[in-house]
Sequence to fold (322 residues):
Amino acid sequence: MNAVVEQALVLWDMTDAAYRLIAARENQVFRVDHGDRSFAMRLHRKGYRTDSELRSELQWMDAVAQGGVHVPNPIPSRSGAFLHVVDGYQIDILTWLSGAPVGKTGAALKLSDRTGLFHKIGQEMARLHAISDVWTPPQGFVRCSWDRKGLLGPSPLWDRFWDNPTLNDSDRALFTELRQVADTMLARIEEDLDFGLIHADLVRENVMLDGDRVQLIDFDDAGFGFRLFDLATTLIKNMREEDYPDLHDALIVGYRSVRDIDLSELELFIVLRSATYVGWIITRMDEDGAKLRNDRFIRTTRDLARDYLARVSGRSTHRNGT
Fold:
């Protein structure tokens, strides 16, 4: 692997740079120190994204950074390209962001000004969406789509949550009903929903704090989607916090201080976001801790699905006058 990294460094005119591996889960990430600056070199996992998808991700990140949102900024190579392929590895280099993630999924948040932080996260999310709305993607721009098909179609982006092999008969029936009801709902309202480029993974690990500055990282799953899906992603990972109602409100108020959004279907996207993790874990059952995560994903989605379906049924009954 060192040979691949060193070949890539030549392409970016960093042949004398020091480097070390700092992450090796989804992508392999190296910290590169060159002169008085630091960078992040990513070796993307093979087969996950096409070259066109990765170039598009980098083009969007560059536009977002130019718009003033704190994200890793792609560094062009000597040739001006953001992406190169070396020995089969897709490689890019980004600016290095100092600071630390706001927390870890599954662990209690350890922050002093919690509502203040969520207010800022909401603001940054809204700025991300606002910049994306006025940006014109270049020709050939390709990213995944968290649309109705991507969430509920026969081959969703994160696998078929209703077919998770560990589901019991009751949960399988419940999740199948959720899929059917949600699909019917989205088919009716999707054209009226706020839709555009979204981050799609603003969990705690992907929000970094450097002093008071909020920074957004890891655009691997970014693409087109419902803006409520971005809000739901942040909220779903913090629902176990004792002050969740305050965090929820702070996120929304922060978002709306920058950009307005209709929240009437937020509950739907919270339960759909929860369901995506039940699908995501299917191909990762052999990873350490997968059973505990799978159980947690199913339990959370079960509770949310029951509540959502009961409320939808209640609204329908009320409309029918019965």
In short: Residues 190 and 222 are 19 Å apart (CA to CA). The radius of gyration is 21 Å.
